[in-house]
Design goal:
This protein is of the alpha/beta class. The radius of gyration is 17 Å and the shape is globular. It has helices at about 25-30, 50-60, 80-85, 95-105, 110-115, 125-130, 175-185, and strands at about 5-10, 35-40, 70, 85-90, 120-125, 160, 190-195, 200-205, 205-210, 215-220, 225-230, 230.
Length: about 240
């Protein structure tokens, strides 16, 4: 199936020494050109903040690129809000909380359909996790129990945002991020792309471009891990 999807899938909303979304605002200004209002989905609630508090943070950031933000919780009908949106931004926080809320509001299939038909989509952290096949490579604690781990399936692979390389000087002997992803591949065949902080994907239809100053790390079942350079990438 040919899709018209256009997405930015970012590892994080905030990098060290920078304000909320500041590092990626120039990219977002171009991405959202011609869009006067973006529908924000605050369901992931980082740190347990309220929908209103979260939306206020995002609204302040988007003022810098002259774009209005409207929270989905401000609408009486979330499904209709998604169907009428020109662009959607799903923010970071807890992926379990986010996915649970999306299922409660019957939005998983609705968001998938509108994005495949051309509605712009921006995700950061948890909002990027849900663009993949499922949420099983999230870093978050399972503080709620969603009906399913299946997510939007807008990509044929999963993201591991905030990817951290092992620190050779650390005295910590617990599992590394790489170990966790290898555990995932014991039971799953889905490729996983580890996105480091400050990196993002720009997706236009079937073309995937890695942007930012860092490489990404690609994990595939029964294959060696691979460093992926910026530019057009092939996940398979």
């Amino acid at each position: 199936m040919i899709t018209m999807k256009r997405m930015i899938i970012a590892s994080t909303s905030t990098i060290y020494g920078s304000g909320y979304l500041d590092y990626i605002l120039p990219e977002l200004k171009s991405f959202f050109k011609g869009v006067d209002e973006v529908l924000f989905i605050p369901y992931a609630r980082p740190g347990g903040i309220s929908f209103d508090e979260y939306t206020k943070i995002v609204r302040t950031a988007f003022l810098k690129i002259d774009t209005r933000i409207k929270g989905i919780h401000e609408f009486n009908n979330p499904e209709l809000a998604v169907k009428n949106a020109k662009a959607i931004f799903t923010g970071g926080g807890n992926t379990f909380v986010l996915v649970n809320s999306l299922y409660q509001n019957n939005l998983i299939h609705v968001i998938k359909k509108v994005v495949e038909n051309g509605t712009l989509y921006l995700g950061t952290s948890a909002g990027s996790n849900i663009a993949g096949v499922n949420m099983k490579t999230t870093n978050d604690m399972p503080i709620v129990y969603p009906p399913s781990f299946e997510t939007l399936g807008l990509m044929s692979f999963n993201i591991n945002p905030h990817y951290l390389d092992p620190d050779p000087t650390s005295k910590h002997k617990g599992e590394t991020r790489e170990t966790r992803i290898k555990e995932f591949h014991t039971y799953n065949d889905i490729p996983v792309l580890g996105l480091r902080e400050g990196s993002w994907l720009e997706i236009n239809g079937d073309e995937i471009v890695l942007k930012g100053n860092l490489t990404a790390k690609l994990f595939r079942k029964d294959k060696n891990t691979k460093e992926v350079n910026t530019g057009i990438i092939n996940i398979n």
